[in-house]
Amino acid sequence: MNTTADKLTTPDTPGGANIPSTTGTTNAPSSTGLADSAEEQTTGIVFNIQRFSVHDGPGIRTTVFLKGCPLRCAWCSNPEGLTGAPQLMYMRGNCAGCLKCIEACPNHAASLTENGRAVDPSLCESCGMCAKECYFDALKMEGAIMTVPELMKELRKDANHYRRSDGGITLSGGEALTQLSFCAELFKACHAEGWHTAVETTAYIDRDSLDKVLPHLDLVLMDIKHADSAKHKEYTGVPNKRILQNARYIAEYGGPKLVIRTPVIPGFNDTAEEILAICAVAQSLPGVDTIHLLPFHRMGRNKYEHMQYDYRMEGVGPLTQEKASELHAVVRDNTQLVCKIGG
Ligand code: SF4
Ligand code: SF4
After folding, report:
1. Would you say the pTM of this structure is higher than 0.85?
2. DSSP secondary structure string, 68-130?
């Protein structure tokens, strides 16, 4: 019996009681319609740029994380990517109680309580002025609005590495494709430079949106988290029907290579039967020959605290190496798929 897995509970609301709903996750600015070139007018909200990444596609890559996601997976390790707008993180352990941030707030949204700094969400406009005044690294604004040329300038710093290693750019999140115009323009700009392009996606998007990015992609790293729709919905907030339909659409599109990824979560999908059911879906997709099993870890745990979100994986331990090896052997012995642990 898996005692840690027993503690993974289903939420009252998808994602947990105090995690923002998915409403508004696609409100990232994408186009002002004022500038002359499409590349100049498109903006996105970026919350992390990870250079020298080697797990998100071939070669040396830069992985760019965009905000906004239509899912609320219980195990999400990037909760700062859930909402589609910049937001504050508060590291209470660093706070000196100096009141600088309170004085800096133009909306009088912040106050200091016996439990540390508190913000009235109805007054806070996420302007970030308080974070600029905090000299103790207790406040951090997650999410910077960037144009495509601004991001390209950043990405060009590693252009030599992409060329020498046949690497490139991967967009991740959140669900990067919620910022559709930005993604499409960025992929086009990357291809113009001769760089490989990839996306890590839930594929929980509409068909028209997919059509806008697929021509500019070389690789799609797509999650299939569970083959059973009811259980998928229970732990992610959405059913899997659209995701499975899109998996087939991408596979039959005849463009980018499709690789299936499965985060392996104790108590959710870590049995041989559940992994083989996902493999059966993957094997039915034309051209798909690889599955990545991504073991659950708890590295995002502190971020939940910094964002004052509930952490639903409390009491659930990381997937053990033994369990990961066992599932790897199950896939190897029962399917035609190449199975890799990790990305
Ligand atoms: S982000 Fe802006 S509005 Fe919100 S608490 Fe800080 S200074 Fe005030
Ligand atoms: S400025 Fe920083 S250290 Fe000072 S009270 Fe605000 S959060 Fe705490």
Report:
1. yes
2. --S---TT-S-GGGSSSS-EEEE-GGG-----HHHHH-TT--EEEETTEEEE-TTT-----HH
Residue 135 has pLDDT above 60, yes or no: yes
Which CATH number covers residue 57?
3.20.20.70
Kindly report the protein residue whose alpha carbon is nearest to atom 2 of ligand 1. 127
Does 168 lie in the same domain as 277? yes
User: Of the ranges 4-18, 217-231, 240-254, 325-339, which one carries the lowest mean pLDDT score?
Assistant: 4-18
Atom of ligand 2 nearest to the CA of 96: 3
Asked whether residue 116 falls in the same domain as residue 249, the answer is no
Among the bound ligands, the one closest to the CA of 129: 1
Q: How far apart are CA 69 and CA 186, in angstroms?
A: 19
Please indicate, yes or no, whether residues 99 and 237 belong to a single structural domain of this protein.
Answer: no
Strands 43-53 and 61-66: antiparallel
Residue 5 has pLDDT above 80, yes or no: no
Q: Give residue 307 CA to ligand 1 midpoint distance, Å.
A: 14
Whether 128 and 239 map to the same domain: the answer is: no
CA of 305 to the centre of ligand 2 (A): 17
Rounded to the nearest angstrom, the distance between the alpha carbon of 150 and the centre of ligand 1 is 25
Confidence band for 343, pLDDT divided at 50, 70 and 90: confident
Domain residue limits at 201: 5-84+143-341
**234 and 91 in one domain?**
no
| Cα 140 to averaged position of ligand 2 atoms, centre (Å) | 11
> 16: pLDDT confidence band, cut at 50, 70 and 90?
low
- Cβ neighbours for 144, distance < 8 A, ≥ 6 positions apart: 45, 46, 47, 86
The CATH number of residue 116's host domain is: 3.30.70.20
Minimum-distance ligand 2 atom for the alpha carbon of 99: 5
